[in-house]
Every structure is written in structure tokens, then in C-alpha cells.
């Protein structure tokens, strides 16, 4: 499994990438493998303030629906439009084109609380 060292991770299997004053958020390679084929991504929180650990959407796989938890506090700025027609992109490219939301960073200190790639790898036993 792949866990890029440049990303931050949560125990709920989300990743976060900081680009300037915004963060891109998606699910990890481990999470997409556990879920299986993703058939739908539902995020209805655009322009809403989300607290750290709150649900910002769901991802639906063939056998289950899983909540998506925000790694940080902020405002959801954008949902990845590609996922409307190609939700399987989360499976094929979880850290690239399969990002799920872009959000503002409300409290930069929360990023320091997230796991490193090594810590996350240890968590999932990879």
C-alpha cells in the first residue's frame, strides 16, 4: 500500500494535503481497498463550516456506505467534480485525481495533530 510522506493522515482513514491556505482531503489507499469498488460519493456540505472530526459526506461502495470525517476545522470550498461521473477515481488514484473535497484551513494547529505516513502505516499494519 502507498502512503505518501507529504500527506497527513487520520485514524478514520482520511488524508490531507496542504496547498497554501487550503487543504485537499480524500480517503487513503487502505480505505479504498477495504471499501472495494466505489460507486458514489455524496458531499452536500459545500460552503458549510465543518468542525474537526465532523462528517462532511459519505462514500458508497458496492457493499457499504461509509461516513467521511473532516481531519480539520474549516469551510468546504469545493467538491471534486470528476467524482460525479467517475467515483471509481477514488479507487484508482486516491491521492491524486481521487481527492474528495477542498476546504479552507480554520485552525492550522490541528494539522500538527494528524498522523505521519509512518504512524498511519503502523496503525493499519502495512
Architecture overview:
The protein is an alpha+beta fold. It has one domain: RNA polymerase II/Efflux pump adaptor protein, barrel-sandwich hybrid domain (OB fold (Dihydrolipoamide Acetyltransferase, E2P), Beta Barrel). It contains 5 helices and 9 strands. It has helices at residues 29-35, 82-85, 89-92, 109-112, 117-124; strands at 8-9, 14-19, 22-27, 38-42, 49-50, 55-61, 65-69, 74-79, 101-104. Strands 1-2-3-9-8-5 form a 6-stranded antiparallel β-sheet. A 3-stranded antiparallel β-sheet has the order 4-6-7. Strand 6 and strand 7 (65-69) form a beta hairpin. The longest helix has 8 residues, at 117-124. The mean pLDDT is 96.
Structural descriptors:
Single_hybrid_motif, alpha+beta, 5 helices, 3-stranded antiparallel β-sheet, 21% helix, 126 residues, OB fold (Dihydrolipoamide Acetyltransferase, E2P)
Summarize the structure.
21% of the residues lie in helices and 34% in strands. With 126 residues, it is of the alpha+beta class.
**What kind of sheet is the major sheet?**
6 strands, antiparallel
Q: Provide the CATH superfamily.
A: RNA polymerase II/Efflux pump adaptor protein, barrel-sandwich hybrid domain
Strand order of the main beta sheet, please?
1-2-3-9-8-5
Cα separation of the termini: 7 Å
Give a count of the beta strands, DSSP E runs of length 2 or more.
Answer: 9
Mean pLDDT rating: 96
Helix segment tally: 5
Give the class-level CATH name.
Mainly Beta
Q: Briefly note the structural class of the backbone.
A: alpha+beta
Succession of helices and strands: EEEHEEEEEHHEHH
Estimate the helix proportion, in percent. Answer: 10-25%
Determine the strand fraction and express it as a percent band. 25-35%
Instruction: Supply the CATH architecture.
Output: Beta Barrel
Principal-axes geometry comes out as globular
CATH topology label: OB fold (Dihydrolipoamide Acetyltransferase, E2P)
Instruction: Catalogue the unreliable spans.
Output: none
Radius of gyration, rounded? 13 Å
- What number of domains? 1
